[in-house]
Amino acid sequence: xxxxxxxxxxxxxxxxxxxxxxxxxxxxxxxxxxxxxxxxxxxxxxxxxxxxxxxxxxxxxxxxxxxxxxxxxxxxxxxxxxxxxxxxxxxxxxxxxxxxxxxxxxxxxxxxxxxxxxxxxxxxxxxxxxxxxxxxxxxxxxxxxxxxxxxxxxxxxxxxxxxxxxxxxxxxxxxxxxxxxxxxxxxxxxxxxxxxxxxxxxxxxxxxxxxxxxxxxxxxxxxxxxxxxxxxxxxxxxxxxxxxxxxxxxxxxxxxxxxxxxxxxxxxxxxxxxxxxxxxxxxxxxxxxxxxxxxxxxxxxxxxxxxxxxxxxxxxxxxxxxxxx
Length: 325
What we know:
The chain is mostly helical. The chain contains 15 helices and 2 strands. Strand 1 and strand 2 (about 40) form a beta hairpin. The longest helix is centred in the middle third of the chain and has 19 residues, at about 150-170.
């Protein structure tokens, strides 16, 4: 009979996990010896089984738990396939290639911050902002924006928010009209509709791909989407929208990074099992998320560098710490 998930997680909590991030920082439950750089001394007693064996057992136990929902595996496979679809992925280098260096990383961050304010003003759901920013990145990956002045960028951002909000909720048109969009973007009544039409044409009318917001909900579904971990993970995923470097990461990787960091910020020290189970559920190894986690860390260390970062952090409403350990 397969060991239960709870008992395996309990054993993992007593097991040292010798993992380094890309730049050599140590993970939870570990400290380095003072004499040799490449060795670690575990804080916990020696385990009866290796970390690899425990991870394999945990994966099997979680798969058996998933069998309780006959549609769970199909939903997960569909989301993974959709996020890998090239037609749904923006180029990670579009500022240098498609836009030929005429749009800066800071200009993009300023646009995203403005889109966030616009969404907040219209009381739209965070998932609308994620889809809108992804639409903007995909558009700018496909077409060069003639006239990169602030007004032109805001018109594109407003059209993306308008289109994304209608995709997520058809009733949005009751509270958000083209006139409202025009007024917010500083344009005429017809311009937002024309910009929306151009945006949808460039995207092939495909707006349905999963976002990091989608995957945060999906990967925390067994927690019934309750508690501060879920809320902080969504907040961290929202912040990654500002960072052009995060365009290169699949939405599931961004979500997994946000969930792991949220648990590390809110859960007790050395609670290895809490984030190890998240990694297995997300299908990633810790080192595969190092780049995205580094980007999230750096945004918190250099808040003033990113336009709108301090406002988005303030919107979370609670203090938290992502100090490197």
